[in-house]
Design goal:
The structure is a homodimer. Chain A is α+β, with helices and mostly antiparallel strands. Chain A contains 7 helices and 5 strands, in the order ααβααβαβαβαβ.
Chain lengths: 220, 220
């Protein structure tokens, strides 16, 4: 129990006040790209990972693996990987969009004090394969969900997270020298954000806007 | 804004009390298999989907698509799909495990008042492909995260969610007659749970137990 970030509470009643605050957490979470350089407090990363490990996983397989990237050479290699992939991404966009895209400053790789790569151990024996036979990709989904848990727990501490996906997964496993069978899911930049907002940065930048949820529901 | 489940609040401060309650939400969320048959209140499903739509998505692509399964014939076909896949899953387990597995009552398909399938629109133009070029699977991850948001929002209302993954994705797209290009991510059973617990059902049943989060972190 000592590894959990908070003492356990008994059978909970979540009241309307909590639900409203939780919704506010969802509304003010952001994919952060601009960070202050201040370090996080000692133990913060471990506490966020402990929260992430409370996430659901298929068959209780807990396939999430966290790699704290501290080595300067590896950080440089990740930055180079991002730059190479970003060039390719720019080439795939129309000229107007490419200019906007370039301005979006897609990575906090230069400023965020913490960089955390997250992998899925596709070969884990934990969970004995339950629920994975017809859909092995549910292992990856479990890891994505754990990242989201970490993201929300961070936001509740005033800490921002930015998910970098413009990377080559195979190259990331090489750079970080992880065991064979680990599948790259995400590279996270973590630190205190320069600002807070309740509107996604991509929407503020005119890239895209959110849809009405009612349009995303069909009945069968 | 009217489609959002709660009125917007201004720039938030999340205090220690909120963080503790949020952690309690993570601890008491469960993958629910045993439901009471009572229906959810009118509008509850739409409210949960609106919360889910506050999730992050790659490039603000919002690729999540929700299919509320109401038709009795389609529900029966999904149950049959589960039974066929479950037989295959049983065959893949050792005899002891198979007996335990059979007792786990893996699906709430018979009792849950609400069944919601969730798909990823891999062909969406929303987001203009930002962040998806090297890792198109991030679209699927966005949907998995939206499911997790719905799950937490439901738990905060006292509503349980069970994720059924012992299904054939191709067959699910046929049964639910969804547009080409929609990829099946999850089938959710939703309703009031018969009980509450802070320990995963699979751990209580002796199937598997959680690991110490410290063992899932490496440094590079």
């Amino acid at each position: 129990m000592s590894v959990e970030p908070f003492p356990r509470e008994g059978r909970p009643e979540f009241d309307a006040g909590f639900r409203r605050r939780f919704n506010t957490l969802l509304v003010w979470r952001r994919d952060v790209r601009r960070f202050r350089p201040d370090p996080l407090p000692d133990g913060a990363v471990e506490r966020l990972i402990a929260a992430a490990c409370l996430s659901p996983s298929v068959g209780l397989s807990e396939p999430w693996r966290f790699v704290l990237v501290e080595d300067a050479k590896r950080r440089t290699a990740i930055r180079q990987c991002f730059e190479a992939c970003n060039q390719g991404a720019l080439a795939g966009q129309s000229e107007d969009r490419a200019a906007l895209y370039a301005r979006l400053k897609l990575a906090g790789l230069d400023d965020a004090p913490v960089q955390l790569s997250v992998f899925c151990d596709r070969g884990t024996l934990q969970g004995h394969g339950l629920g994975c036979r017809t859909m092995p990709e549910t292992l990856d989904y479990s890891v994505a969900i754990a990242i989201h848990t970490l993201w929300l727990a961070a936001r509740a501490e005033g800490v921002g997270v930015g998910w970098v996906s413009i990377l080559d997964p195979t190259r990331m496993t090489e750079i970080l020298d992880v065991p064979a069978g680990w599948r790259f899911i995400a590279h996270l930049c973590i630190g205190y954000p320069q600002g807070e907002d309740d509107v996604p940065a991509l929407q503020r930048a005119g890239w895209e806007q959110r849809q009405n949820p009612a349009q995303l529901l069909v009945r069968r």
